[in-house]
Amino acid sequence: MNKYELALVVNAKLEDEARAAVVEKAKGYITRYNGNITEVEEWGKKRLAYEIQKMREGYYYFIQFEADATAPAEIERHVRIMDNVLRYLVVKKEA
Predict the structure, then answer these.
(1) Fewer CB atoms inside 10 A, N or C side of the chain?
(2) Half-sphere exposure of 84 (CA within 13 A, CB side)
(3) pLDDT in tens, 34-63
């Protein structure tokens, strides 16, 4: 099992419940591909470096997880088409 981190930038115009649902859905994709979530960090609302879809702010989340080598590609495939996710990135963490 490798260690990974999923960074999500979620639409800042969403209500708290809708934003939590987006994060839960992303966490669901991780567990669907036999991933084990170790930590979820919420950085809160931050200003974006540049405008994305006419928005200047987004909510940042960082989800650490352990999974097999094939899982990140599958997780990205699903997160790419999620509504209200402005940006995402899965990176492998050093052991």
Answers:
(1) C
(2) 19
(3) 999 999 999 999 999 999 999 999 999 999
